[in-house]
Amino acid sequence: MMNPLNPSKRPSQSRRQFRPPPLSRGTVLLDRLLRETKPSFSAWHVAEPRLIFAGRQQCEDPKTGLTLYGPAGIDKTPRQTVRLGVIGTGETVQRFLTWLESARSPIAAGMNRRGVGYDPLLAPDFPGFNHNTVFQCGIETPVRLQEVLTQREIEAAIDSPDFSARVKGVVDLVAARLAVLADREPAPDVVVCAMPELVDLACGPQGRVDRKVNRALTRTQRATNRLEARARIAGQMLLGYDQDEEGNAAISGYWDFHNALKVRAMNHSLPTQLVWESTLTGTRSTQDPATIAWNFFTALYYKAGNVPWELGFDAGGTCFVGVTFYRESPDPQAMTRTSLAQVFSETGEGLVLKGEPVRWDKDRDRRPHLSEGAASRLIAESLAMYEKHFGRAPSRIVVHKTSRYWPEELNGFRAGLGNVKSFDLLALDRRGIRFLRLGKEPPIRGTVIELARRNYLVYTRGYIPFVRGYPGMRVPNPLEVVEHHGDSTGEKVCSEILALTKLNWNNCGFASGSPITTAFSKQVGRILTELPTGQPRETKYRFYM
Q: What is the pLDDT of residue 194?
């Protein structure tokens, strides 16, 4: 074809007609097959589970239910005052007491950094924490329950180039004050550890990776830290690791400040709440002031022995168990895992059971599994713990496991059930399978898609009609029930999964992405990693929050 403007010139390359390469015979057949066989999936929607508050009143949203009716714990215990112990420097203790006093009155969500107000459905104002507001509970912080750490003590505790040594130094310092508070009469119900920025930089996440160096360290110590960090990244050394006969790294402890502090507090049966100075000053907080207060006081109320809300469906006599595995060493190459069972009742009260060590056979599966005997013992011990704590044996057990079931595991779980009449064994995973719906919003939370027989996708995150939006920033990744062995219908077990996402006492949000049976398994496992051999451990879940 000639160029009409200049017959002597050929058409430019960009104007030539593009001719795609011919399709292969296999591609043509695949395209024809996809056009002729349209995939078909059955789907349904599980109604948003309702929670029970004071007076057996029900509501979908925790914050709305607390505001309208009050916590469920009011029906079980009389109005009380939480005795709060405080450990920190003089400045952080005073900052916390000032913030605590302000939280007795309502706290507004305010505006974000761009000057835009928060959505009142997602971030409602905090109504205050006192005897006459939502929780109908007061807080007492007597001087005798306040322990002040001096600047010299903290500087001496963090005067080491080794991260684990710094963590141990500060934990030992705080643990000594916990022992003092535990001996006071009466002892505090919960102890708040208000840690200064100095400890945050030395023992927090920043101190671990050396992104910001503590001012108390010398130039030589800072250089040593950088060299050690490079060596760890290169895999040349693992500081503090002792090797056992099989080449696994043995535990020397103090890998994480929060977790090590939780373990040491168990020696004195004191639940703790860690608060960083940056949270009190708001310098690095990503949440609005009202949400911070909601989360703090909900956790505090639960740690003091109360139940903020309960599940609203008929699950009486059901024992929910989450079975996971964790490393007893921070070494990612360690082959030994330990089983962990998190046991919950329908009221939301939780218990933690440490199981037996297991060997990870990578040639057979990429995830650890239990032997038949270990599976039987783990379930039997979980049921015995449930009966001892709640005073009755469950009539039904639901197990959420984070890996598929091997035949020997199924046999072991069934053998350990004893006289339990009904059971459901579920394997939960996220494989990245997603579905879309028409419009701008993701699938509605509670959408269930059956991929195959007893194989379901459950949208634990998604569009929430109650808040008129999707409270997330990314495309939701649904939870998948990859296996289901047992008696109940798919709709029932999926509805229970959805309900168990609303039992997160560390967060007063509408719901979490995972059920409570597995949501905090990694955190609990890391805490147990810090547990020295022979030290007794607490079984109540509030000591691990």
A: 95
